[in-house]
């Protein structure tokens, strides 16, 4: 008899608790926070494998009064003494931050401004910048030659004509080579990449990883990645 009374009490108690919980869920539903952060708008240009700056090619030129002019078109008209970036009337947009290299002639040839000078007076064109940088940055230059430093795109296979090696000035400003502090891209937001109709993922502007997945699904490769 006593056990039967206890069972009845427990049964009614459980029923009452369930009713109270149901009422709470009905009148005051629990607010669940979204664990996924809001999407970040990412510039599509930052998702590729392109150089981060435009290097000056050979022969070098600058824009003067809307015209592209070679260095010697102006420098052949006058003699220059010791050239210090801080006192230049032209090229005053140059920000110098390259250690003790405060004299333009540490890198630029005295007679030919469209040439770069190496040790011993030998000159090279602007398409051979790594040789110039290597005269002071030997270990980094050797790493670049071996493919350890810098970036290689197009193909990883040696001798492949599609392979392209970025040179020093494709990434570093030669006058201020240290990289400025930047904001890293957000990590992939895989929770938001729920399948829609078929295997295609939502590829809105806020889902760069989904765009990459869709590109591989449609074309079978990633255009920005080496094969």
Question: How does this model look, in words?
Answer:
Among the domains are: 61-171, no CATH class; 187-219, no CATH class. Helices cover 27% and strands 7% of the residues. The chain has helices at residues 2-27, 71-75, 129-134, 138-145, 168-171, 208-219; strands spanning 61-64, 67-70, 116-117, 123-124, 152-153, 164-165. The protein has a two-stranded antiparallel sheet with strand order 1-2. Strands 3-4 form a two-stranded antiparallel sheet. It has a two-stranded antiparallel sheet with strand order 5-6.
From the spread of the alpha carbons, the general shape counts as: elongated
Name the beta content range. 5-15%
Strand order of the largest sheet: 1-2
The H-and-E topology, N to C, reads as: HEEHEEHHEEHH
Largest sheet: 2 strands, antiparallel
Round the mean pLDDT to the nearest integer and report it: 77
H/I helix tally = 6
* Low-pLDDT runs: 193-203
How much helix is in the residues? 25-40%
The structural class is: alpha+beta
Number of distinct beta strands: 6
Backbone CA Rg: 32 Å
Distance between the termini: 80 Å
How do the strands and helices of this protein lay out in sequence?
Elements (H helix, E strand, L loop, with lengths): L1 H26 L33 E4 L2 E4 H5 L40 E2 L5 E2 L4 H6 L3 H8 L6 E2 L10 E2 L2 H4 L36 H12 L8
Antiparallel strand pairs: 1-2, 3-4, 5-6
């Amino acid at each position: 008899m006593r056990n039967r009374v206890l069972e009845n009490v427990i049964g009614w108690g459980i029923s009452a608790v369930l009713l109270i919980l149901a009422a709470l869920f009905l009148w005051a539903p629990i607010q669940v926070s979204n664990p996924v952060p809001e999407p970040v708008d990412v510039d599509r240009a930052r998702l590729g494998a392109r150089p981060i700056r435009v290097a000056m090619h050979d022969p070098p030129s600058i824009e003067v009064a809307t015209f592209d002019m070679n260095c010697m078109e102006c420098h052949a008209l006058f003699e220059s003494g010791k050239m210090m970036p801080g006192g230049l009337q032209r090229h005053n947009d140059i920000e110098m931050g390259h250690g003790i290299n405060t004299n333009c002639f540490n890198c630029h040839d005295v007679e030919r401004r469209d040439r770069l000078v190496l040790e011993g007076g030998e000159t090279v064109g602007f398409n051979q910048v790594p040789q110039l940088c290597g005269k002071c940055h030997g270990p980094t230059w050797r790493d670049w030659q071996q493919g350890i430093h810098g970036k290689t795109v197009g193909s990883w296979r040696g001798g492949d004509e599609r392979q392209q090696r970025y040179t020093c000035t494709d990434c570093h400003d030669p006058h201020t080579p240290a990289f400025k502090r930047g904001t890293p891209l957000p990590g992939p937001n895989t929770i938001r990449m729920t399948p829609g109709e078929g295997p295609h993922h939502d590829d809105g502007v806020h889902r760069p990883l989904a765009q990459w997945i869709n590109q591989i699904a449609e074309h079978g490769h990633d255009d920005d990645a080496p094969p």
